[in-house]
Amino acid sequence: MPTMVIDGREVTAPPGANLIEAAKLAGIEIPHFCYHPALKVVASCRMCFVEVTQEVRGKATTRLTTACNTPAADGMVVRTDTQPVKKAQNDILEFLLINHPVDCPVCDEAGECKLQDYAFAYGTASSRFAEHKRFRHAKKLGSGIRLYTNRCILCDRCVRFLRDFVGTGELSVTDMGNGNEISVFPGRPIDNVLAGNLPEICPVGALISEDFLFKARVWNLSAVDSVCPGCSRGCATSLDVKDNEVQRTRARENQAVNGYFICDDGRYLYHVIRHETRLEHPAVREGDQLRESNWDHALDVVVSRLAEFPERIVILLSPFLTQEEVRAGADLSEVLRGSVLGHVPNAVQEAPVLFPGGFAIDGDKAPNSTLVKNIAPVPLQELAITKDTVVLFFNSSLRTGSVSPLDAEKLRRAGFVAVIDVLRNDITAVADVVLPGRMWAEKSGTFSNSAGMAQSFGAAVLPPPFTRDESDVIRDLTRRITTRISTGCGAKS
Amino acid sequence: MATINVQRPARLTLAERLYLPAILNGLRLTWRHIWGERVTLQYPEEEREFKRVYRGVHRLNKDDKGRVKCVACEMCAASCPAHCITIKATEVEWPERDKIPKIFEIDELKCIFCGYCVEACPEDAIHMTRHYHLIARSREDMIFGLDKLLAIYDETKEQEVLRGVDFGVIRARIPGKEAGNPDEVQKLAYPVVGVVTKAETHHAQ
Ligand code: SF4
Ligand code: SF4
Ligand code: SF4
Ligand code: SF4
Ligand code: FES
User: Fold this and answer.
1) CATH class of A283-486
2) Does B78 touch chain A if contact means CB atoms closer than 8 Å?
């Protein structure tokens, strides 16, 4: 483990770390554009100059060098604040800003832009460049990514990400010298499921997400740590909220799961929160029709049905529930003696994907399958459902088609179905009581991912007014049942 | 025990005890104002005329093609201490720019007329006019939207109004610049110019 001194602070860096990483450990920021911890080092932007004093052939030598491609070495003395370093930083910024439009007022990156921050911290307000700036039109690159060509500083991060990390390599630097620009090959737009990371990888506002385009200025957003419910991998995300609406999802660093990135499916999943098929009121079946009702009545209908001593009670849990809700469901099945606990496996399955950079997407498109299968191991297909069966189905599915046609068919055979769900679907259409639940962004909870790692998340936005937290509903139901039915008579066994 | 010496006020003189000289003095002042220059005016028949740095109702400027000049950057909203500006942007496909406001609202009731929005605007898109009649039937009507703010521009485009650059003169705090010429500052900063009589227009309404 190399030990060195950076700006007078002693740092012991892990082997293989470069000076940027080592300085970070000491709480010192070395400005950089082209370096990204997940990508190959190219040392092309020259923003990360530092002054290094090191023994070379028995003689202490001081030189200006780029921190990103200098490995931390024992006995190094690094300065990040000397006059030559400051001059180098200022000069590099002046170069980068020669053709840069500085259209920060209309640039979505403003507020989280490295160029803006560094120009403010290490640059000067004036430029000696009096000629016309080069002008390039913005280009649509595919997969919802737009290139504001003028703003690009040619750091090459996007090219390396697609080439080395994703392995698709749609982007490259074309033309020579002053004509350099990032392009796709003619007729071959960006087409991969990690493309949404590009705007985050781009240190400036050159790569912009069309999904977030002009939606909000970033300083008006408040970020809430969350966990992606998109697949059983459980990537760390950050939900950026304004006006009680999620405006975008960003990847949050979690080296144990997703590194620095998330996939596009998870990134754009937040649109489901305000989906038009969202269930917003409890509903109770009257004849052929589901009629809007209130919570008290809807829950009473369920409890009354349970109090009629049905032949069989089946409690079904879904892999979209949080750990807390699953436990509440299991507790309810204890209270309802003789009831059977099972689960409805998620039917949305895709082939798992592994990228050359190590990023993996799971095939099971539900967040909590592992835990649900542990607590309620029996799948619906192995349970007997008859017309004398009362089914309580606790779903909270963000995906249409998460209940397979076979399972749906089976549920239709039940005499009475009460379901908690968030979106209208085949099951809510045939259910006798429909209770509107909440999306992951509207409640707190825990998901256990496919590796068995439990990760908690908090609520980011307020839910629609008449929805209720699933675990709260299940506990309420449990309480109503225990007061209404004397324990032990819940079901004939 | 420490001793504290207290200074007692001197006893009143005879003239002071009589009160009359002070009263006469006061009356003289009143008398002088009665016959002196008149400062009150008969609003609304008469109105004050202000200099262009008067901070009245906002307007949103138009560019030379008659389109909204604002680029929805929200700098004004960010600088507004009263949080009374709401902006939602939208995309347009104009050759020279692609972002304009879809919603631009100023709650004139919340506004404290500080002018920071004018100073913050990088596009010189928002100005403050000399209009100070703010009359509406409801609070909602006092939230001025895009249409209204652009209409105020049409009404006042001949007027010289408060622009962002004026702040440089008034405050003389642009970094690296000399403090403004005191005469210039005085000319801009003292807002009242004179009185206009508007009796006819008001009666006509
Ligand atoms: S990329 Fe950064 S510096 Fe350039 S216009 Fe956007 S915010 Fe400003
Ligand atoms: S588009 Fe962004 S990431 Fe790609 S080279 Fe330009 S500045 Fe770097
Ligand atoms: S004048 Fe001041 S308070 Fe009024 S809108 Fe502008 S910045 Fe806000
Ligand atoms: S600061 Fe100017 S350009 Fe920006 S949103 Fe406000 S009025 Fe529009
Ligand atoms: S970060 Fe070191 S040269 Fe770009």
Assistant:
1) alpha beta
2) yes
Give the residue on B whose Cα is nearest the Cα of A137: B95
Q: Which domains does chain B have, with CATH numbers?
A: 58-192 (3.30.70.3270)
**Whether A31 contacts A77, CB under 8 Å:** no
pTM score of the predicted model: 0.88
Our answer on whether the CB atom of A102 is closer than 6 Å to any ligand 1 atom is yes
pLDDT of residue B16: 84
What is the CATH code of the structural domain delimited by A3-94? Answer: 3.10.20.740
Q: What residue has token string 């024992």?
A: A74
Predicted pLDDT of residue A308: 87
Atom 8 (ligand 2) nearest CA: A155
Q: Does B122 touch chain A (CB under 8 A)?
A: yes
Atom 5, ligand 1: which residue's CA is nearest? A104
- Domain A3-94 shares a fold with domain A283-486: no
Q: Pick from B78, B91, B122: which is nearest to A214 by CB?
A: B91
Residue A312 near residue A300, CB atoms below 8 Å: no
Average pLDDT, chain A: 94
- In eight-state DSSP terms, residue A10 is E
Instruction: List the one residue out of B69, B107, B61 whose CA is nearest residue B85.
Output: B107
Name the residue of A34, A64, A154, A201 to mutate for ligand 5: max ligand atoms within 8 A of Cβ. A34
Record: contact A106-B75, CB cut-off 8 A:
no
Domain locations along chain A:
3-94, 283-486
φ, ψ of residue B18 to 5 degrees: the values are: -75, -25
> What's the confidence (pLDDT) of residue B203?
40
Q: Does B86 touch chain A (CB under 8 A)?
A: no
Spatial separation of the C-alpha atoms in residues A278 and A301, rounded to whole Å: 22
Return the closest-CA partner of residue A128 out of A92, A95, A103.
A95
Residue A177 pLDDT greater than 50, yes or no: yes
pLDDT, mean of residues A181-199? 96
Q: CA dihedral defined by A371, A372, A375, A378, rounded to 10 degrees?
A: -140
Go through A195-206 and write b for each residue having 16 or more CB atoms within 10 A of its CB, e for each that does not.
bbbbbbbbbbbb
Considering only CB atoms, which chain B residues are within 8 Å of A106? 71-73, 97-99
Decide if pLDDT at A166 tops 60: yes
Judge: A105–B98 Cβ closer than 8 Å, yes or no.
no
